Amino acid sequence: MPNASTPQVTGDGALVGMAAEPGEARLLAAIDRKRLPVHVAIIMDGNGRWATRRSLPRVEGHRAGVSALRAAVEACGDLGIRYLTVYAFSTENWERPEEEVGFLMDLLLDVIDRELPRLTEHGVRLRIIGDPDRLPAAVRRKLEDAVKLRPDEERMTLCIALNYGGRSEIARAARLLARDVLQGRLRPEEIGESTFASYLYTAGLPDPDLIIRTGGEHRVSNFLLWQLAYAELWITPVYWPDFNRVHFFEAIVDYQRRQRRFGRV
User: Is 93 a catalytic residue?
Assistant: First the structure.
């Protein structure tokens, strides 16, 4: 991904970004590579507040957030984390000012054009979750082309949640299940958790092990409501444009200090 230091691929297939700074090196040394989360999801919050504190238009916070996303992808590559899901645009975000929504759509097109070739080159596959119908036609076409690209050797999946809402996803899955029952393709007694999950946008993805939320808010904001049932939560007051590799590694270290019981004693 284009920045001051181009990522490299290690012998074990990991995507490596910038050389570690002293703080990064200390955190990396503390991480147990055998107990990594398989799937990390991020609620990228605080772009607007970041811009407001600098007396900038809110849209400049979104522009600055692209670098934070690049850093998170590189950090996953450094560690060999297979799945990263980011909350880019929610079903509620349409209520924002029209100018801001338009900027976000244009920014998405620009980011795909600039970043996708490098992602594909380094084994990162793109996946989109959410309802594409309300997205502008140009965005839909761009996304359809982008997800068709397959790396020669897939090392990581970057999943972007666009026009996504957890409640609407669950309602959609229920409608699809009801349709299949009415059409005789499925019996009600066959519907269990795994069957229901196969009707979600995230079908085929493992549930997230770790949810990171930037910006300091203590809520999940309608994100992956079904999937985060047993996810560990890590919340930082750092606004998303300031989120960097050190913060990501701090989240991983904290995750590894916890005991995941999944309801067991």
Answer: yes
